[in-house]
Each structure stands twice: as C-alpha cells, then as structure tokens.
C-alpha cells in the first residue's frame, strides 16, 4: 500500500479543552502540557489531519509504524492509551470514534493548518477544476491501491467492485483514478438497452479509448491481435479488413482470447495498464469468458482489471459472472471489494459538506439515514431536494420531516419525474428508449424536434446534475456533438418503466426509424440495436430483417453463441409475422445461421441438425434463397460428419439440381464436394475420383477461395482429396503431386483452416503408406495449428494420429490411450464419420501391445460401426488387422481367410494399393498359391508408381524367394 503523502504544514488544532501543536510536539490541556508518548502523539496527529474521515487500520499502521512487525493489537493499545490521556469514553466518544472492524475517525472540529486560511474563506483558483467531495471508503481505496501496486510489480490483478445500485461504485473508481495521475488506463462500459449486445463491447470500447491516447497500440494490434483489429474497423482500410477476413476464416472464438492475452502481455511489458469495465452485470458472455481467461493466464503482466457490477442482479439473474467470481475467489485469482451503505457517521460527513451545524444534529442525521438506508445515491438525491441555501436550517429540518421520502430509489425517481416539464419528460422518455447513452441527433429525429432545441434541453438537464451527464470528455478540437448518458442507470430504468406502454411502443418505432436514417448516412448503428427497437415496437418483419443481419455479423465476429441467442429470439418473433414468401425467406436465413452457429458451438448434434433441417424444408418454397449455398454445403457436410451418408447424398443431389436450374456453379461445386466425400467413405474409389475431378475443374474456374459457403479453400481441399484417391489407386506419384499442390496453395493463402485440412489429408496418405515417422511430424504440425488458431475441427484428429504413430514407434499402450480418448471426445460431439478407421487404429495399437482380447473388442466394434454406417473405406485394412490378430494367436486358417477377404474388398473398391498390401500379406504367410504370386507380379507391373515404396520392395523379395525355392 502507498504511504500517505507527507504534509509540510504541521497540525495546529483546538478541540474541546485541548490544543494540539504538531510543530512543537506538544499537547496542551487548558494551557498545561500533557505527558504523551511519541507513538500515541503521532497517532493523534494522523487522525487529526483527516478529521471526520474514516482512517483504516492498515492506513494507521502504515503511517505510524510502517506496518512492520506489528499487529492490530498494537494499534488498539495505542488508541486505548490516547483515549486515557484525552479522557475519551469509547462508548460515547467526543474525539475518537471506533468504526467496527474497519478503523477510527477523529470527530472533533476540523484542523486548521498554520499557514492555510480556514476552508470557509479559502477561494480556489478559477482555472482549477473542483473535484466532488469524497466521503469514507478509505479501506476500499487502500485495497485498490495495493492491487495496483501488485500489478505494477508484474502480478496481474483481477478486482471486482460490487454493490447495489447507487452505492457509489463509479464515484469510487473516479476517486481512485484521480489519485493515480497520468497512468495508462482503458475504460469501457457494458450496456443494458439490448439483451444480446455486441461481443466484448466494453473491452472493445476500452481498446478504442486506449488507441485514442496511445498511438502505438494500433500497430501492436496488427502484429499480435488481428481478430481484435477486425472489430475496430476505423483502424484499418477496407483492403486490410478484407485480407484479415480471408486470413481468419474458420478461426474459433478461442483465438480472440489468446490474442488478447498476448496483446496485454506485450503492452504491459512497457507500462502498467489499468483496464476498467463498468456495469459487468450487463455484460455479454464473451467478456466474462475473457476475464476468466486473463485471470487464469500464467506469466507476469503489469495489468489490473477492475470491474464493477451490481451484486444482487448477478446473483438473482444467474449471470455467468456469479459462478466465475466464486471460482476465481476460491482459487485466489481475484479480489472482491464489496461496498456497504454509509454509516450514520458517514451520512453526517456528507451533510457537513452542506451544513456543519445540521451534521451535528443527531436526530436529523438519524432520520436521513433511516429514510435512505445509507445508499449514497439516495442520500445525495434527498439532500439536493431539501437543501436550499436561501432557507434557514430550521426550515430545512422541517422540510425533511414533511417530505415523504420513500423506502426505495424508484419512488425517489418518481418524485423527480413529476417535477419534469412536459417537453423535458418527452425528451427523456425518448432518450430512455435509446438506452443508457444516446445521441442528440437520434432523439431529434425521433421526436421531430430541431437539433439545437434538443441540445439546449440536454444541456439544461445536465446542469441540474440529476438526470444527464456527458458520456466522456471531448477530445481536443473534436467537432462532433458528444453523446449524453443518464447520470444513474436506475433513473433511466425507472423512467422507461413509467413511460406508458403505448407511448413506449411508439417511441421504439420512432427511435428505430431515426437510427435507420442515421445509419444510411454512415453513422455506425448495430443491427442488433435496430432489431431490439423494432421488436419492442411490434414491427416483427422489420425486426426480423435486422435480427438476421445481426446474427450474420455475430458469426463474422467469431461469436456463434451470440448468433444463437439472436436467432432464437427471432424465431420466436417469427410467429407474429404474417405468412408469405418474405417470412419464409427470413425463417430460412435465421435457421441456416442458427445451424452454422450451433455447429460451431455444439458440434453436429440435434440442435445444429434440427436448424439445418428447418431451413432445408423451406428451400422448396424459396429455391433462389441467397443462403442456399451455405445451407446445402453446411447441411451436407454436417450429415457427412454424423455418418448420415444417404441423407448427405440427397442434399448433394438437391444442390446439383438447383445448380442446373440456376446455372450456379458454386452450388454445383458444393454438390460435387459432398458427393466426393461420401463416396470416398463408402469405398467407391473411381466414382469418388470422378466427382472430385469435376469439382476441381469448377473450383479452378471460379477461384473463389474461402467465403461464407466454404470455410476452407476449395482448390486446396480438392487437390488433397484427389491425392488420397490416387494413392488408393496405386498412383502414388500423381497423388504426391496433388498433395504438394494442396500444401503449396494453403501456404500461399496463409489461411489456417485450409492449412489444417491440407495437413489432415496428407496424414491420411501417410497412414495408408505406413509411414509413422512422417505421421508423427504431421500430427504435431496439426496440433500447433489447432492451438495457435483455436481450430476445433482438428482438436481430436491430431491426437489419434499421434497415438497411431506412437503405437508404431514403440509406445503402443500410450498410443492406444491417445487414440481412444480422442475417439470418445470426437463421437461425444455426434461425429461418427471415419469412426471405423479410428477404432482400427485402436485395435492395431492393442495388437502391438500384445493385448489380443482387448484388440479383438476394438476390432469388432470397428466392423459393427462400419456396417452400421455403410462405411467401407477402411474395411480392407480392418480385415488385414483381423488376419494379423488371428496369426498372432496361432489361428492360421482364420488369418488366411481374413487376408483373402481383404483382397476381395480392395478389388471391389478398385483400390489397387490396398489390394497390393493384402497380396503381400498373403504371400508372407506362405499359404499363397502360384496364382496369388502371379496376381502380385501382374499388379506390381500395373502400378509403376509404387515401385519405390517399401511395400513393393518387400513384395519383390518375397517373389525372389519363391523363385529360388
């Protein structure tokens, strides 16, 4: 904690029969010196210097003892000694008052510094702004100061400032900031006026605030936090933003968390930063998640994140902040400062700012405390009402006695509402409909009043210091009119609630229309805000259009959870819209967006599938819907991942038919990709190649890259898919050429999702070629991509392939564990595509570990899943595993039978490479016939691109041995 500042002017004070003279180190009683030890004397001076102000125990220990090797008991002893000398009764104090568990207060007359005139005659310089008086909260300020000092030393601090409305949270923050001087500070506010606000709104506001004061921050954003830079469009050009969107396509919301952590780590390496987010009870989930991430982030950071919230609302509404604050407190990752109402003594201190004699009137103070519950806002409101400098204090007491002061703030605000002139009330009602902050231009348009009259009315209301204040201080030479805000959020809420329902509905419509007009001339207005206004104005069709726009923007901002919230509200509102084509169009848009966002959030489960099915059903009525490509590709892809292959093919056929009718090649491309993927998994090698070659020709002609339909570059993806089929056909070199093209394009585009898919496809090739060292390296590369860019799609696959490589490289038990854990997580999300192959990896690892019974269980499960799904792509390898397992247990006949079934399946799939592998296995078993040997010779001759592989080298050795025999 910071030590109190030194005071060059010593205390000189008369109180009661005593005179304290710090300069001469003496205490006099009725002119006679009083014996007082140095420590109690210094303690008295510290208390007297801050008369009528609570001085916390920590502050006293710091000031008198330096807080070294002492405890509270030493302070109590010194206070007791001091009271004995002063003859002060602690139960009825004249000079030193105890504030239970907090500290002490000197309650005698105010001290007079020897060289400073009394406060009643001192005149502040006219060019020095006068700060509002600050009452109490000494201990709370001290805790904030200690947290800031820890942050300055590299120990990140997350501090909650909690309390009921009107308790003085903002005032305390302002006082704390004023005492820190010119530090790096970024402030943001959560907004209440629409329930599903922009993700990270207070943090984005804080970053924008910091960018205005620190010109180095935008460059740092470009370097380490591009997803955040994308949310601050005024910091980059249109070309830069388009490039960023392409680069960040497919990136998950976790990327924003990591980027923000890295951004603040680098920023605070140069200077400490105080990040303030107010009214966190109105925050979006993304902001709460970000605070959680920053609190748990390891490593030093000179950061203090101070957030205020209303405790009762957080608990009552089951806000996600409620559980987070408990978790972080249990793990000592945060500190919570809870503000209590003023005590009677603090209420008296506040009254003393207006009238010293009234502050000494115990009856008056007690009545005021009882009627306001000590809530600072209540106290301020009542004192402003009853105090009038032109009236004597007796009249003031009478007015307080006669005033029907209510028990809650809503009633107090009602009193102020009643005093408003009709025009003022109409203006404030419109402003309340706008939200906690509002622009005069919006109110002017909504009420059809001149802008100058609205500004004049707002200025008058601001001067009264009851209703309005300016949202922020103006920048130098700023020409635009700054927004206003309600001085207290509760004032705005009560006024909004008291506005007649019919008028409130009309005002929402008028404000929504005004915001539309402003938006049309370039004023940034969020679609979610417009949706809220037209929703509450009972104009469902207009609201639905903006809900759809807001939901699409949420996906662009990596916030699928917000997209789901918006679409859920919109789909409920849809029931109020009249039937017809426009409603069907909007419903299809909303359902498609909900399907995409649910897929990102929850995987391929029923929520995503149900949303896509709802949109798919509507496609018959709206066949030319602009989102049909996104719907058909997304739905087909989801069905493929679920293992619903027949349904996926139906969707692909629908896309092909629509493409032919509309001559839409992007739809045909989506159809070809889904067809190719499904036929691949069903083991139809030549048919798969046909679809993929057709798709590649379309993709190369379109050259569309990543967009709202394709999260990965189609050309790179198709080169990789085709490479796999070519390898299965034994065209190894051609396959490697296509795979190299996929990797080269992914590297050129520098798009993370495309890079992930290309690496995924190369792993599948190396698994089929049996190269565990290469698979391990690729799996590690995938893991880096997944971690760096938060790509949920590859989170499980990279682990089961690492497990496959570990099993083959001498760690089969560890490999099995990785494979099975990844498989359980993958299928737990509803994704069953490729399940038979992954279970084959698990069976192979257990076989290598010598656990034949467990391997048999995994293998049978793989056969069952493959049969259930109609998934045959890995069936030849599964049959070879069955043969190896039988051979390991001495069952040669069963082994040979399984190998021959593998050969038949490979031939049925026209997968010549797999047939070659199976024939080599058969020949190695020494039960092969001359016909088998001849078939192997002929196959090798037909597949010249396989000649350099280890498998063909083994085959040639076997055939040479047969000849010699």
Automatic annotation (TrEMBL):
CDD domains: trans_reg_C. It holds the Pfam family Trans_reg_C. The keyword Nucleotide-binding applies. Residues 10-108 bind DNA. Keywords: ATP-binding, DNA-binding, Nucleotide-binding. InterPro entries: AAA_16, OmpR/PhoB-type_DNA-bd, P-loop_NTPase, Sig_transdc_resp-reg_C-effctor, TPR-like_helical_dom_sf, WH-like_DNA-bd_sf. Residues 10-108 form the OmpR/PhoB-type domain. PANTHER family: GUANYLATE CYCLASE DOMAIN-CONTAINING PROTEIN (PTHR16305:SF28), TESTICULAR SOLUBLE ADENYLYL CYCLASE (PTHR16305). This is AAA family ATPase. It comes from Pseudomonas izuensis. The lineage of its organism: Bacteria, Pseudomonadati, Pseudomonadota, Gammaproteobacteria, Pseudomonadales.
């Amino acid at each position: 904690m910071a030590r109190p500042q030194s005071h060059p002017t010593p205390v000189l004070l008369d109180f009661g029969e005593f005179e304290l003279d710090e300069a001469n180190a003496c205490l006099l009683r009725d002119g006679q010196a009083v014996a007082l030890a140095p420590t109690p004397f210094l303690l008295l001076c510290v208390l007297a210097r801050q008369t009528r102000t609570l001085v916390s125990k920590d502050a006293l220990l710091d000031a008198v003892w330096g807080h070294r090797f002492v405890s509270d008991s030493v302070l109590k002893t010194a206070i007791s000694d001091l009271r004995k000398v002063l003859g002060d009764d602690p139960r009825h104090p004249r000079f030193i008052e105890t504030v239970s568990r907090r500290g002490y207060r000197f309650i005698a007359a105010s001290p007079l510094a020897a060289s400073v005139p009394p406060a009643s005659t001192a005149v502040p310089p006219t060019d020095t702004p006068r700060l509002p008086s600050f009452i109490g909260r000494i201990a709370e300020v001290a805790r904030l100061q200690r947290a800031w000092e820890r942050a300055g030393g590299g120990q990140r601090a997350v501090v909650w400032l909690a309390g009921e409305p009107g308790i003085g949270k903002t005032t305390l923050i302002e006082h704390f900031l004023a005492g820190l001087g010119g530090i790096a500070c970024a402030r943001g506010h959560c907004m209440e006026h629409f329930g599903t606000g922009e993700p990270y709104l207070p943090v984005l506001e804080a970053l924008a605030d910091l960018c205005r004061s620190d010109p180095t921050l935008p460059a740092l954003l470009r370097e380490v936090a591009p997803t955040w830079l994308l949310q601050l469009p005024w910091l980059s050009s249109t070309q830069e933003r388009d490039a960023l969107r392409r680069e960040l396509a497919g990136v998950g919301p976790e990327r924003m968390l990591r980027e923000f952590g890295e951004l603040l780590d680098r920023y605070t390496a140069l200077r400490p930063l105080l990040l303030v987010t107010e009214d966190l009870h109105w925050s979006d989930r993304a902001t709460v998640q970000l605070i959680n991430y920053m609190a748990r982030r390891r490593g030093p950071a000179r950061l203090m994140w101070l957030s205020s919230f209303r405790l009762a609302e957080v608990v009552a509404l089951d806000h996600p902040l409620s559980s987070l604050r408990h978790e972080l407190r249990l793990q000592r990752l945060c500190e919570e400062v809870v503000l209590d109402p003023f005590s009677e003594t603090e209420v008296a201190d506040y009254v003393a700012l207006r009238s010293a004699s009234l502050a000494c009137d115990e009856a008056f103070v007690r009545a005021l405390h009882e009627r306001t519950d000590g809530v600072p806002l209540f106290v301020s409101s009542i004192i402003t009402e009853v105090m009038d400098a032109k009236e004597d204090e007796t009249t003031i007491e009478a007015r307080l006695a006669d005033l029907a002061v209510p028990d809650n703030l809503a009633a107090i605000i009602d009193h102020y509402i009643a005093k408003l002139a009709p025009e003022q009330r109409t203006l404030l009602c419109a402003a309340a409909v706008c939200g906690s902050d509002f622009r005069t231009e919006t109110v002017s348009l909504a009420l059809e009043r001149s802008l100058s009259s609205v500004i004049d009315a707002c200025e008058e209301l601001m001067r009264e210091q009851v209703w309005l204040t300016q949202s922020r201080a103006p920048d130098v030479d700023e020409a635009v009119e700054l927004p206003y805000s309600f001085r207290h959020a509760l004032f705005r809420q009560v006024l909004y609630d008291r506005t007649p329902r019919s008028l409130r509905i009309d005002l929402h419509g008028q404000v929504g229309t005004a915001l539309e007009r402003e938006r049309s001339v370039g004023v940034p207005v969020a679609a979610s805000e417009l949706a809220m206004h037209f929703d509450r104005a009972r104009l469902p069709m207009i609201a639905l259009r903006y809900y759809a726009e807001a939901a699409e923007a949420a996906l662009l901002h990596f916030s699928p959870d917000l997209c789901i919230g918006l679409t859920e509200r919109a789909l409920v509102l849809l029931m109020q819209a009249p039937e017809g084509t426009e409603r069907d169009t909007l419903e299809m848009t909303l359902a498609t967006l909900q399907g995409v966002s649910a897929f990102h959030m929850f995987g391929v489960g029923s929520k995503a599938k149900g949303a896509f099915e709802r949109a798919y059903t509507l496609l018959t009525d709206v066949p030319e819907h602009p989102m049909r490509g996104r719907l058909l590709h997304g739905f087909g892809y989801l069905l493929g991942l679920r293992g619903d292959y027949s349904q996926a093919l139906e969707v692909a056929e629908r896309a092909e038919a629509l493409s032919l009718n509309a001559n839409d090649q992007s739809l045909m491309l989506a159809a070809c990709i889904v067809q190719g993927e499904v036929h691949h998994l069903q083991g139809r090698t030549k048919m798969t190649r046909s679809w993929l070659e057709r798709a590649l020709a379309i993709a190369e002609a379109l050259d569309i890259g990543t967009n709202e339909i394709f999260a990965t570059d189609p050309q790179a993806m198709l080169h990789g898919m085709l490479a796999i089929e070519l390898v299965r056909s034994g065209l190894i070199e051609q396959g490697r050429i296509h795979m190299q093209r996929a990797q080269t394009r992914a590297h050129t585009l520098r798009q993370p999702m495309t890079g992930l898919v290309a690496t995924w496809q190369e792993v599948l090739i190396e698994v089929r070629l049996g190269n565990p060292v290469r698979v391990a390296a690729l799996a590690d590369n995938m893991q880096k991509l997944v971690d760096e860019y938060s790509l949920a799609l590859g989170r499980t696959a990279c682990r089961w392939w690492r497990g496959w490589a570990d099993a083959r490289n001498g760690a089969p038990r560890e490999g099995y564990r990785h494979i099975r854990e990844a498989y359980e997580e993958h299928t737990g999300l509803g994704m069953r595509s490729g399940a038979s192959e992954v279970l084959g990896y698990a069976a192979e690892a257990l076989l290598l570990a010598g656990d034949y019974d467990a391997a048999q269980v995994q293998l049978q499960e793989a056969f069952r899943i493959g049969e259930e799904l109609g998934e045959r792509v890995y069936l030849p390898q599964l049959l070879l595993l069955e043969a190896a397992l039988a051979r390991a247990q001495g069952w040669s006949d069963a082994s040979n039978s399984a190998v021959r079934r593998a050969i038949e399946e490979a031939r049925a799939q026209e997968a010549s490479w797999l047939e070659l592998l199976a024939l080599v296995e058969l020949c190695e078993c020494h039960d092969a016939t001359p016909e088998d040997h001849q078939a192997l010779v002929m196959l090798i001759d037909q597949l010249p691109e396989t000649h350099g592989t280890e498998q063909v080298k083994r085959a040639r050795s076997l055939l040479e041995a047969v000849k010699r025999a």
